[in-house]
């Protein structure tokens, strides 16, 4: 029966339509159109069940498949490991867990401990729990507040949405967990005070300090930020921002938690996004690119100082009393280790930097051609183009028109992304995150599709 179904696309489509609850999709649309089912991927290209080929400019739709599709060595390593030892709860160790942790920490000077889980949301939950437990154990429960930034995103659970700066993602899911407090965004293109460059960078960081002082420094335990805001519009913090943020955290004894779920493992051209800015975090979370989607894995990585706060044999409640069931699956770390080796052997971080510059240059040239593009920004193979109805006023282009650009590219066989149902009034940024194996030919194909789509949207 399975073989018959595999060879019968119509049956697969109907089974999907009848039984699968898709992510982030209004299913009314599937009453009049077929679900898109992806059946194969090689390199940067995927094929759907109808046989149509697409160039994937968003690494699996959500910025995950960093080393591209069809990597047999990762699949083979996972297969061999699962036959030998597939799973044991994380209270015990594993060979791939130990090996990958060692290899990962070598890329993260100043950090030392890796806690395994299976999704970015879960990794951030672990970090939030660590902060809260440290508050109870070492600060009498006082330093329990966690600050997060407007337009940043940290996951789908209720606690992660409580730390989410995208109001449309949060809508209808409250009430939220208390003592999560928002600080202002740092998008220079839409600067709150009309400043620019380092002046705005320092001012945007000072806005965080103002929130800390308002809440009371002795009540704030951590500041959770993306190194580059991802789904909120590809926001690269201005010069001076991260230096001032680090200074503020040290001044008030606040743990700095960097969410690298999107930027981690080479996306920006360094192993982690925070390394672009000289930041020294206390906690780093990661997922997506850790194993490039070949297995489910996330990590919450801490300094030894954070780890030591949970070591107290005299207190039976002192250790981190947490477990992630599938954090014990051996497929994650073994896939992650092979993924890391590929990134090293093929020098994909350098390629991300090189091809990212080429992508940015191409988008900037399109900006000269198309008045709809108001701003181009990004780092490495992670770029955004903000679309506007009027460059002079910077009025955002309507979300419907932005999605029309995405749909036009899809018809051309190129999959790009865009902010949607995230930031009220500002779902107007095209998103690009091609696999780190991208070459000039693939970037040219992406740019040509966007060029054509923008021309047709403007009529």
From TrEMBL:
Domain of life of the organism encoding this protein: Bacteria
Record has Nucleotide-binding as a keyword: no
The protein's Enzyme Commission number: 2.6.1.77
Keywords, in A-Z order: Aminotransferase, Pyridoxal phosphate, Pyruvate, Transferase
One of the record's GO molecular function terms: pyridoxal phosphate binding
Cofactor(s), names only, from the UniProt record: pyridoxal 5'-phosphate
PROSITE patterns in the cross-refs: AA_TRANSFER_CLASS_3
CDD domains associated with the record: OAT_like (cd00610)
PANTHER family (UniProt xref): AMINOTRANSFERASE (PTHR43094), AMINOTRANSFERASE CLASS-III (PTHR43094:SF1)
Family (UniProt): Belongs to the class-III pyridoxal-phosphate-dependent aminotransferase family.
Protein name: Taurine--pyruvate aminotransferase
């Amino acid at each position: 029966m399975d073989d018959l179904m595999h060879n019968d696309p119509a049956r697969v489509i109907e089974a999907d339509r009848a039984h699968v609850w898709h992510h982030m999709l209004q299913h009314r649309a599937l009453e009049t159109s077929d679900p898109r089912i992806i059946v194969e991927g090689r390199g940067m290209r995927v094929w759907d069940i109808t046989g149509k080929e697409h160039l994937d400019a968003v690494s699996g739709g959500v910025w995950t498949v960093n080393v591209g599709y069809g990597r047999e060595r990762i699949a083979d390593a996972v297969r061999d490991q699962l036959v030998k030892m597939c799973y044991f709860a994380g209270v015990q160790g594993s060979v791939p867990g130990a090996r990958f942790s060692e290899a990962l920490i070598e890329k993260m000077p100043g950090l030392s401990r890796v806690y395994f889980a299976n999704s970015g949301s879960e990794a951030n939950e672990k970090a939030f729990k660590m902060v809260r437990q440290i508050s109870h154990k070492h600060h009498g429960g006082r330093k329990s507040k966690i600050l997060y930034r407007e337009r940043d995103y940290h996951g789908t659970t209720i606690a992660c949405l409580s730390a989410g700066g995208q109001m449309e993602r949060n809508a209808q899911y409250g009430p939220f967990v208390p003592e999560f407090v928002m600080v202002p965004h740092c998008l220079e293109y839409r600067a709150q005070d009309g400043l620019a460059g380092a002046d705005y960078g320092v001012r945007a960081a000072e806005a965080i300090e103002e929130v800390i002082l308002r809440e009371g420094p002795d009540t704030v335990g951590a500041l959770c930020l993306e190194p580059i805001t991802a789904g909120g519009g590809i926001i690269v913090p201005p010069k001076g921002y991260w230096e001032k943020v680090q200074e503020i955290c040290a001044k008030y004894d606040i743990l700095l938690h960097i969410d690298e779920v999107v930027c981690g493992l080479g996306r920006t051209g360094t192993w982690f996004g925070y390394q672009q800015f000289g930041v020294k975090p206390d906690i780093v979370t990661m997922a997506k690119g850790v194993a490039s989607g070949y297995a489910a894995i996330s990590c919450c990585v801490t300094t030894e100082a954070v780890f030591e706060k949970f070591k107290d044999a005299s207190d039976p409640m002192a250790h981190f009393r947490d477990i992630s069931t599938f954090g014990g699956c051996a497929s994650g770390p073994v896939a992650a280790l092979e993924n890391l080796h590929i990134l090293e052997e093929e020098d994909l971080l350098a390629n991300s930097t090189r091809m990212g510059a080429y992508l940015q240059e191409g988008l900037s040239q399109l900006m000269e051609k198309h008045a709809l593009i108001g701003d181009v920004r990004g780092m490495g193979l992670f770029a955004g183009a903000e679309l506007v109805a009027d460059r002079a006023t910077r009025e955002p282009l309507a979300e419907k028109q932005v999605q029309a650009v995405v749909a036009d590219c899809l018809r051309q066989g190129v999959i790009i992304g865009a902010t949607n149902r995230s930031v009220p009034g500002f779902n107007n940024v095209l998103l690009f995150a091609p696999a780190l194996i991208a070459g000039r030919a693939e970037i040219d194909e992406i740019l040509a599709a966007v060029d054509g789509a923008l021309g047709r949207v403007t009529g």
